[in-house]
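Why this split exists: single-chain examples teach little about how molecules sit against one another. For that reason, every record in the complexes split bundles all components of an assembly together and asks for one structure covering all of them. Below is a record exactly as it appears in the raw files.
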Amino acid sequence: MKKPIDVKKAALDAAVLLAGFVFAAPVAATFAMSFVYGGKIGMTQYYELMITNYTFLRYFWNSLFYACVITVCTVALSLPLGFIFSKVSIPGRDIIFFVFIIVMMLPFHSTLLPIYIQLDSFGLLNTRAALVLSFVFAPYAVFLFRQFAKSIPDNFIDIALMDTSSPLKIYVAVIIPHMRSAVAALAVITFCESWNMVEQVIFFAAKNNPIHPLSAEIANLPEGVGFSAAAVYMLPALLLFFIFKEAIASSMERFRWHG
Amino acid sequence: MGRQKIIYISFLVFIFAVLVIFTNFGKELYGIGKPAVTITRARFPNDADFFIAPASALQTDGEIIYLFFVKAESGYSRQILTAHRFEVILLGTDFEGLARLKKISPDKLPGDTVITSADKEIKDGERVVLK
């Protein structure tokens, strides 16, 4: 007997396929157009980008530097905070966490002025440190790690407490191994976010062009090499996503169950 | 580690290696394959319908006499020099090796610099580099 067609499922599949196409089309078009220069297909656009306009690569390495430093610092700062907010009893913990949530909901522009004043008073405006520091204190990262740490059973920690009384040892031996997928997911998200920073550059480092990341400079490239520049700019983030896609998917899944 | 992951990582490393090469050698690589030229400034006397350039800059194609002017554009990373062919009439030469020339082509000259020598044949509109 012929199996009846599940219309609902077919419609859902079609919708997902369409959404996928809508998201993928600009990326595919960028890569396709990067091989066209002056109406001819070839590698000329990449030649023009890499050789004639080779100084653009300076900004690429700036981007990589910021993305790596910000990612490492964000993970290093947020991981212990997430653990403290979920497992360590300190007075006023929930109130502080509530403040974190509020800050997370605020758009960047509303905290822009206080950050600017702080960086100015530290004498850090127009420095690399300004761009890194304005990014590394990420409330969403703390929130993500807290939700993950909550999923670790308290028994684990109690058993570890029988072996050692050092919170650092417990943190390293019990907490971090359980949070690996969350770390990978957050690292990719933070990397991509800092890879795309523009507003921070405009507000905190506008006067120091050599330290700008590529995201802020790509618009200044000659018109003819725009697509190849965009392709080179996209590749590291795309590859990073493909490398860590399983970790991202599994962390999302766990986040859904324990969030 | 899955095979696919290794491919992605290898590709990422390859891209970074290519970018490192172009970051360090992009400036030098630009000159490869392009004619290296020497240039000099042509003189345009006031109220004269001719200009003066070194006779060594002149080239012939049958009965046609021409020379190359250099158009300089400030690019994103460097100054981009392009050679533009202009046909001229030779009015005369003096003992210093300077030629009095009249422009035939109606186009506006792209600049006042002419190519006096090149290490290979130049095509009209081709990019050149200084020796």
